[in-house]
C-alpha cells in the first residue's frame, strides 16, 4: 500500500480509504490516479494482514473426510456456494477420517485466522477439543459433534432408518438385514438403530434381524466385506439397509461376483441419494438427502455464532422411498435421487 501511495503521490491513508471504498473525501482525479497505480503495480490487499489488524477474516475452513465420496463432495459444493454468496471464501481440507490429520488441519487453519470451521463428519480429537474450548465458531455437518453439543446441520438419521424398514416391509420383505461399519459414526449408527427399532416395533423379532459388519474406513470396502459376512452366515436376505450408498456399491460388487441379481434376489436400500445413482446404480433404491440445501443452513448457523446468538440442531428433511415397488422389478431411485 505504501508503494502505491508513493507511485500515486498520495498518503497511505488515502490509498487505504480508496481500497476500502471510502471515496467521499477524495477527488475524482485522485481516485483515478490511485486506481491506475493499483492496476499497474498489481496490488491486492493482504487479507491475512487485514485479519491480523482487525481480528477479522472472510475465510472459512471446511474439514471433511474422504472427498472421493460423492456425498462429501455434494456437501462441499453446497457450502462453498452459500459462503461465496455471503462474501466468504472456503478452504477445503480432506481429513481422511483420521484424528491426527484433522488436528493438523485445525492448527493450520487457525494460523490462517479463519473466521470459522465447518466440520463434516468430524472425529474425536485433541485438536477439536481445544478448538471448541477456545470458542472458535464451529458448525458440525452430517455427523454430530463427537464431544457433544454444538451447532449441527443434518437429517434425522434415526427416522431415515425407520423409513427404510417401512419400505422393505411394504415390499413384503419380512426379515431384512442391515449392512454397517465396524467403526460406526453417530450418523450411520443412528440409521441402523432406527431401522432395527422400527422392525421390532412392527413385530420382527430382534434376534431375526441380521447385522452384517465390515471393517475399515472406506464405505465401498465395508459394504463388500459386510456382504461377504451375509453370504458366510446364511446367504443373501431378500432385502437390506445399507447405511450409505457407498456401502451399497460395495455389496453390489460382491453380488455381481456371486451371480446374485440385484434387486431381483436382494433389494438393497442406501442412504444419500447420490446424483450418480441414476447413471451407475439404477438397481439401488435410496433415501435422498438434499445436500444442495445444506449450505444455506450452515451459513445461517455460522452467522448466529459470529453474532453471539445461540444455535440449535437443524434437521433437513430427507426424501424417503414409498412402498410402490415390486421386489422382483428393477429398482428406481427415490423421487429426486440423481
Throw out a few tags for this protein:
single chain; 338 residues; alpha/beta; 434 Repressor (Amino-terminal Domain); Rossmann fold; 6-stranded parallel beta sheet; 5-stranded parallel beta sheet; 13 helices; 11 strands; elongated
Question: How would you describe the overall organization of this protein?
Answer:
By secondary structure, the protein is α/β, with parallel strands linked by helices. Helices cover 44% and strands 15% of the residues. It folds into three domains: 2-45, 434 Repressor (Amino-terminal Domain) (Orthogonal Bundle); 57-155 and 292-315, 3-Layer(aba) Sandwich (Rossmann fold), CATH 3.40.50.2300; 157-290, Response regulator (Rossmann fold). The two termini are 49 Å apart.
Amino acid at each position: 500500500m505504501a508503494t502505491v501511495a508513493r507511485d500515486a503521490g498520495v498518503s497511505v491513508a488515502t490509498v487505504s480509504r480508496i481500497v476500502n471504498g471510502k471515496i467521499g473525501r477524495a477527488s475524482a482525479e485522485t481516485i483515478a490516479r490511485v486506481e491506475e497505480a493499483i492496476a499497474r503495480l498489481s496490488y491486492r490487499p493482504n487479507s491475512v494482514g487485514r485479519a491480523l489488524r482487525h481480528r477479522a477474516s472472510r475465510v472459512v475452513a471446511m474439514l471433511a473426510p474422504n472427498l472421493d465420496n460423492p456425498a462429501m463432495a455434494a456437501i462441499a459444493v453446497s457450502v462453498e456456494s452459500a459462503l461465496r454468496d455471503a462474501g466468504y471464501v472456503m478452504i477445503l481440507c480432506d481429513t481422511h477420517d483420521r484424528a491426527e490429520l484433522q488436528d493438523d488441519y485445525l492448527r493450520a487453519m487457525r494460523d490462517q485466522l479463519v473466521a470459522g470451521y465447518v466440520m463434516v463428519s468430524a472425529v474425536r480429537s485433541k485438536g477439536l477439543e481445544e478448538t471448541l474450548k477456545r470458542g472458535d465458531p464451529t458448525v458440525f455437518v452430517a455427523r454430530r459433534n463427537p464431544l457433544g453439543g454444538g451447532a449441527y446441520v443434518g437429517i434425522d438419521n434415526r427416522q431415515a432408518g425407520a423409513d427404510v424398514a417401512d419400505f422393505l416391509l411394504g415390499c413384503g420383505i419380512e426379515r431384512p438385514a442391515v449392512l454397517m461399519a465396524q467403526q460406526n459414526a453417530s450418523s450411520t449408527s443412528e440409521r441402523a438403530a432406527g431401522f432395527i427399532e422400527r422392525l421390532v416395533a412392527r413385530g420382527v423379532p430382534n434376534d431375526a434381524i441380521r447385522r452384517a459388519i465390515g471393517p475399515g474406513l472406506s464405505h465401498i470396502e465395508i459394504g463388500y466385506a459386510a456382504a461377504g459376512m451375509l453370504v458366510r452366515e446364511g446367504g443373501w436376505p431378500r432385502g437390506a439397509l445399507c447405511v450409505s450408498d457407498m456401502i451399497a456399491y460395495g455389496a453390489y460388487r460382491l453380488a455381481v461376483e456371486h451371480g446374485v441379481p440385484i434387486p431381483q434376489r436382494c433389494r438393497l436400500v442406501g442412504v444419500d441419494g447420490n446424483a450418480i445413482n441414476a447413471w451407475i446404480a439404477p438397481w439401488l433404491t435410496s433415501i435422498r438427502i438434499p445436500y444442495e440445501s445444506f449450505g444455506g443452513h450452515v451459513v445461517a448457523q455460522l452467522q448466529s455464532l459470529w453474532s453471539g446468538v445461540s444455535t440449535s440442531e437443524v434437521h433437513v428433511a430427507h426424501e424417503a422411498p414409498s412402498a410402490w415397488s415390486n421386489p422382483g422389478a428393477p429398482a428406481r431411485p427415490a423421487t429426486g435421487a440423481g
